[in-house]
Design brief:
285 residues, nine-stranded mixed sheet, 9 strands, Putative lipase, FrsA_esterase, signal
């Protein structure tokens, strides 16, 4: 009986040692890519090779088509996804640089065109959600996407639209409004982790009447941050911007991928000379 007991105990110990690494890995199963550094999030490309595919407006319903950028390899598993809207009178070409930059860090990215270049923020919000639905249900890359890990972003009225989308679909994991414009100033019912980036010298959507009131109105329990780029105009998202990119990557990694390795870049507040103001609730690890 004692021998049998010792054998059973030994088997239990081996089993525990065998499952422990799996259990440990399951604590953060959405990590993608190597440990981040300041250099890696500032780089114009991350560790993933990227492919892209065009989506015709004739093939979709609810938005104007666009371009999908995605990691070529799925060796590490599926990816979170983000849809990004341009601003008033603009097309996806105005934000095209963002697509491959984010995708190379381990996301599927959909830069969209809107139904018309004059669509208002509420319409752009609906179109961002329609784009995510297409991306996860009908697109050629849908098998690469984890449908529980989705986000929205946008510039100007597209940024206002990303707030609309986040308010309408609380299951989203993150929102990143860029120089957002919207006539609605209160977002007290928004619960999605939201990172607002404004331009200090923005005269189209001045931060005092747009970005800052938006940020202030979002409950702290939602997780939020506000970053103001030093001397930046309304159009800072239209050309490659390292500061915008590195903290957008960090926010998406932290909340879409639940990757706490990126929390170090968000909290405490970044000490960066290109940032004139930074406010946050500090992500909860």
């Amino acid at each position: 009986m004692r021998s049998t007991t010792r054998i059973l105990c030994g088997l239990a110990t081996v089993a525990a040692l065998t499952v422990a690494p799996t259990a440990y890995a399951a604590e953060n199963p959405y990590e993608r890519g190597p440990d981040p550094t300041e250099s890696s999030i500032e780089a114009s490309r991350g560790s993933f090779a990227v492919s892209q595919t065009s989506v015709s407006s004739l093939a979709v319903i609810g938005f104007g088509g666009g371009t999908i950028y995605y990691p070529t390899s799925t060796a590490q598993g599926t990816f979170g996804a983000v849809a990004i809207s341009p601003g008033f009178t603009a097309t996806q070409s105005s934000i095209a640089w963002i697509g491959p930059r984010l995708a190379s860090q381990g996301f599927v990215v959909f830069t969209i065109d809107t139904n018309t270049i004059y669509d208002q923020p509420d319409s752009r919000g609906d179109q961002l959600l329609a784009a995510l639905d297409y991306l996860t249900q009908r697109s050629d890359v849908r098998s690469r996407i984890d449908t529980s890990r989705l986000a929205v972003a946008g510039h100007s009225m597209g940024g206002g639209g990303s707030l609309e989308a986040a308010q309408d679909r609380p299951s989203l994991q993150a929102a990143v409004p860029l120089a957002p414009w919207n006539t609605q100033k209160s977002w007290s019912s928004l619960r999605v982790p939201t990172f607002i980036i404004g331009g200090e010298s923005d005269t189209v959507a001045p931060v005092a009447s747009h970005s800052i009131p938006f940020y202030t109105s979002i409950p702290a329990s939602a997780e939020k941050a506000y970053m103001e780029l030093d001397n930046a105009s309304h159009f800072f998202p239209n050309t490659a911007n390292t500061t915008m990119a590195k903290y957008t990557i960090s926010w998406l990694k932290r909340f879409v991928d639940n990757d706490t390795r990126y929390e170090q870049f968000l909290c405490p507040a970044p000490d960066d000379r290109t940032i004139s103001d930074y406010r946050d609730t500090c992500p909860h690890a």
